[in-house]
Specification:
- With 308 residues, this protein is an alpha/beta fold.
- The chain folds into two domains: 217 residues, 3-Layer(aba) Sandwich (Rossmann fold); 67 residues, 2-Layer Sandwich (Alpha-Beta Plaits).
- Helices cover 31% and strands 29% of the residues.
- The chain contains nine helices and 14 strands.
- β1 and β2 form a beta hairpin.
- It is globular, with a radius of gyration of 22 Å.
- It starts with a strand and ends in a 7-residue tail after the last helix.
- Bound molecules: adenosine-5'-triphosphate (ATP).
Amino acid sequence: MSIPLRAEGLSKSYGTIPALEGLDLELEAGTITGLLGPDGAGKTTTMRLLTGLIRPDLGSVWLAAEEVTGQRASSGQIGYMPQRFSLYPDLSVDENLRFYARLFGVRGPVRRERTDRLLHFARLTEFRRRRAAALSGGMKQKLALACTLIHTPEVLLLDEPTTGVDPISRMELWEILTELRDGGTSILVSTPYMDEADRCDTVVILQEGKILDRGSPAVLRSRFPDRILEVEAEPLGRAAKVLEEAQFVKDVVPFGTRLHLTMPTPETDPDRVRDLLEKEGIRVAVVAETEPSMEDVFVALTPGGEGS
Ligand code: ATP
């Protein structure tokens, strides 16, 4: 079976700023690929190149067996939800969906059936008469996704759909994406949140326009060279400072209300960490070995990061 969407050696500069360098990508049917990277990594540029909104300086884009480099993707093929999706604030949820249905040529009973299904899918049925302006940030993103899905695309590109969205809506959005994936849709989703990597089948880590690594979350974790100790202590700020100065700790990364310590493997000794902190009068609740988070993996991959 052919790959629904493929890119080979995509490069793009804006003037003298290189935004993307030699990106290869294959989106397989029924999978979620996550494009992970901080602000300015090249995520939006990738999306715009794949949808033909901009032309690459080098490289090609393929939709199934057809080369489409620099051609605007037709709506039947790719659904694209840009970072700033245009909802009409004065129109209701229903009216926004009707607008996009008309735009994509979806009419009559098919439109009504899809609207009902998507509203249900996006958990928005009870808000269908609410004006878009009055929706929460998370609801707006779910409505934007529903509008993008009205023409049932087989390939879906989503540019940071969860940025600035509350945790519950973020979870709901990911549940929706997982359902779509299980129904056979190929999804590329960009995110600056490393913790979302675990929702993806494949992760591509981008920084400054270059791929740092790629693979399943499990494979990326398995390549992590060190061990991680999770520390819960009070006061946490002082604990971080003490540990940053300890010779046997390679790196200290805040992780919610805890710290993740990167330790060179032979030195992984929770008691050593506990003793050091307690000697400084810091109360230690937990020191335990844990799996590296995707944030830890990213830090290790980053040029200048401890793992490089
Ligand atoms: P963000 O989440 O901040 O949008 P991103 O990962 O999507 O980041 P891009 O928007 O693709 O990254 O930007 C990649 C690089 O290209 C950045 O250095 C950015 O400043 C630059 N860039 C993007 N668009 C333009 C443009 N139209 N003109 C000049 N430089 C640009």
